[in-house]
Write a structure and sequence with these properties.
The chain is mainly alpha-helical. 71% of the residues lie in helices and 4% in strands. It has helices at residues 6-28, 40-47, 51-63, 82-103, 109-128, 131-146, 152-172, 181-194, 198-217, and strands at residues 37-38, 67-69, 75-77.
Length: 222
């Protein structure tokens, strides 16, 4: 049997995954701006790794839509496209409604209490203008019932959609004046769950997503 160094293999896998995660997070939080050119040599120097894991990370990010490679081979952060954003929001509320249908009967008082607590934290973050905290709280609110779902594949797909939308919401947070309405929309979702009215819950989830899109629609880059 051929011998191999398992530690070396593990280390190489870890470096590749870490490079991918860091670059993706830089794109999501705006450290790397839309349309900004990406040079593997510069990124490798910043992260203290070879160019190989950087190139692998960029290929993976291109598959996920976070970066683009031009015909002349220059690589850049993908722009924020208004049509793509609308598609992502529509996918988001459709998948979240599916999750709710699957988990509705398993939502307990403790889950509602968690949602109420997180929503208060969201309200505070919005009032303080803390965009990163606000977006994280918004995702945490929805994650309370998403985490109950046993459907791992559905949760994986939804997480990917939300990662892309987190980038959009962070980018436009300061331009949106009525973002505080998301708190009230969450309150209506909670109330509908308390009433055990699934059709109403599904309707409120879609409204929350649609209104979130409407809040940034006028600021989107075409």
């Amino acid at each position: 049997m051929e011998q191999f160094d398992s530690k070396k293999k593990l280390k190489r896998t870890f470096v590749r995954e870490e490079a991918y995660t860091i670059i993706r997070d830089w794109i999501v939080d705006g450290t790397l701006k839309p349309n900004q050119q990406l040079r593997d040599k510069e990124l490798a120097e910043q992260l203290g790794v070879s160019r190989t894991p950087i190139r692998e990370a960029l290929l993976r990010l291109e598959d996920e839509g976070f970066v683009q490679t031009k015909p002349n081979r220059s690589t850049m952060v993908s722009p924020i496209d208004s049509n793509e954003v609308l598609h992502l929001y529509s996918i988001g509320w459709t998948l979240e409604q599916l999750v709710m249908k699957q988990t509705f009967e398993n939502i307990e008082d403790k889950h509602l209490q968690m949602m109420e607590t997180i929503n208060l934290e969201l309200q505070k973050a919005i009032a303080e203008g803390n965009q990163l905290k606000a977006v994280e709280c918004d995702n945490e609110f929805h994650s309370v019932f998403i985490d109950i779902s046993p459907n791992k594949e559905l949760k994986r797909i939804l997480a990917g959609v939300k990662q892309k939308l987190k980038r959009v919401e962070l980018y436009y947070f300061d331009l949106v004046e009525d973002v505080y309405f998301s708190y009230e929309e969450h309150e209506r979702i909670i109330e509908a769950i308390k009433q055990k009215d699934l059709p109403l819950v599904l309707d409120e989830i879609e409204k929350n997503w649609r209104l979130s899109f409407a809040r940034i629609q006028n600021h989107l880059i075409d």
